[in-house]
Amino acid sequence: MKKTELHSTEIKKEKALLVGLFEKGEGIEEDMAELAELAKTAGAEVIGQIIQHKDLPEKATMIGKGKVDEVKLFCEGNDVDLVIFDNELSGIQIKNLEDLIDRKILDRSTLILDIFAGRASSAEGKLQVELAQMKYNLPRLVGKEKNMDKLRSGIGMRGPGEKKLEIDRRNIRDQVHELEKRIEKLQTERDVRRKQRQESRIKKVALVGYTNSGKSTLMNTLSRSSQLAEDKLFATLDPVTRNVFLDDGRYYALTDTVGFINKLPHEFIDAFKSTLDEARYADILIHVVDTLSRNLIRHHEVVTDVLRELGAGDKPVITVYNKIDACREFPTPVTENAVCISAKTGQNIDGLKELLAKFM
Q1: The whole model's pTM is what?
Q2: What is the pLDDT of residues 44-56, one digit of tens each?
């Protein structure tokens, strides 16, 4: 009897090589580990990394001819599909690297945008991703035009913004203008809802923090809702607001916001301004910190810097050190406005509620 062949429907993961150019110093291991997490979140299989120590980037290829040859040799020997740079690449650099290595070339920002494109669910979120893609890719068209058909599939090619790269720059600028008007209209609608909350005198509390710090899990614990909470970067992209009641009968509007990340380009902040404004208009910010992170201090600084850039740097902040259920030692709150909790198990959630009640 002839055996029936079974064909796997599983999508083959693209094999990725990570490349980073760094000045000599600290932070290399942490940056590359985060880039690996971003690549995995996008669906890639990371099979290696190459580091170049150089004070200044090489204009033509970022990493120089010697390292390019090393990257090319690794790709040919390991069947690599794409090369992801931790550094921001210019259009000329992308074009040169694709010509020399004959592989799809992405930088960190394009990778983040690809993840955003895959996770945006609301109409506004999709428009914001498309706008950010266009703004970021417009000056890099020269690196996208060559071998477009060959390189346009897979990671880095998701979202409507990539489809616009085949038309000329003037049409793209027109599209950018149109998207900005549509987002502005949605922003006006959001402002109306925000004004209604202000007039009702309901306190507004926003969850902020580095990506994957546990904001969505805390949102579920406090509001008893079922907001998506995954152990992935950027699990939440669109802001979600829930009314949460305190033990004394008062209630507040709690909003979960998109997580921040290091090296976030200005195009991202500009495109997501209306979403990030939830932090700017909040009465109280709850800054969720992942105590398991080896880069806790650095992540804290990134969030603080972004909040300052958004105009929310002077807001009252409660610092929440999360995930203490998995810590052997967890930080002692350095101020009276900090608390240690586990959003997952509910450990010391009452302590957070008491602190929040005092703030309100």
Answers
A1: 0.79
A2: 999 999 999 988 9
